[in-house]
Design goal:
By secondary structure, the chain is of the alpha/beta class. It has two domains: 33 residues; 139 residues, 3-Layer(aba) Sandwich (Glutaredoxin), CATH 3.40.30. It is 36% helix and 21% strand. The chain contains six helices and seven strands, in the order H-H-E-E-E-H-E-H-E-H-E-E-H. The longest helix has 19 residues.
Amino acid sequence: MRFSPKTARRTVPALAAAFAFAFLAPSFLGIAGCDRSAKPRQLDMPAPVFTITTGAQTVRLTDYRGRIVILNFWASWCGPCLEELPTLVALARQNSQITVLAVSTDEDPDAYARFLATHPMPGVVVIRDGAQQSNALYGTFRFPESYVIDRNGTLRRKFIGPQVWTSPELADYLGKL
């Protein structure tokens, strides 16, 4: 294919516009600033507090002050969440100093109930926030994401994706809190 000066005059601006849209527009639209880094802005700040009530069950993050909390946001349809689940349960059983608070973001209460019926979580505090207000406080909309909150209610660390919560590295980190 040959480019004439007339073709070049049309092609170059079109390529420049495509480049600008693909690489610059996201930052102007506010979608490039997604905080999925391991060091969110909230680190070393008080963890955003919430209360979730479903039926007779109420969970308040402040009720766990004085304990280390692993706050895990998950969903029943999330494959990586299922992958991580056994190690969260094992962590809760192995370490009585830690509370694992697993907040399901399932909108469908039946899907949530079916999941729990086939995947029990003994030792883990589990609740469904179908309105997804608690995870919104943390800027979490992809799952699983977990936060480590120290005994004083300070957010210490963020984990994106499934973790092996029983690994020696995490045990060492959690043991030093």
